[in-house]
Amino acid sequence: MTASDRPRSIGDLLRRAAADRPGATAIVEGSSRISWSDLEARVDRLAAALGAEGLAEGDRVALQAPASIDFVSVYLAALQAGLVVVPVNPGYTAAELDHILSDSGASFLVSGSVTTVADASRLRSTHPALTGIAVAARSGAADVPTVTDLARRSSSGGLHRDRTGEDLAVLLYTSGTSGRPKGAMLTVRALLANLAQFGALQPAPVSSLDVVYLPLPLFHVFGLNAGLGMALYFGATVVLSPKFDAAAALEAIVTERATVVVGAPLEFAVWANTDGFAQAFDGVRLALSGSAPLPPELVSEYARIGIALFEGYGLTEAAPVIALNLVPAAEQASGWIEPKPGSIGRPLPGVEVRLLDSDGEIVEAGDLGTLEVRGDNLFSGYWPDAADGPRSSGRADEDGWFTTGDLAVADDDGDLYLVGRRSDLILVNGFNVYPAEVEAVLSKLPGVGEVAVLGEPDANNSEAVIAYVVAATGATLDPDVLVEQASRSLARFKLPKRIIEVAALPHTATGKVMKWRLRPDRQREIDQAAGSSQG
Question: Hey, what domains does the chain have and what are their CATH numbers?
Answer without folding.
Answer: 1-8+35-164 (3.40.50.980), 350-420 (2.30.38.10), 425-504 (3.30.300.30)
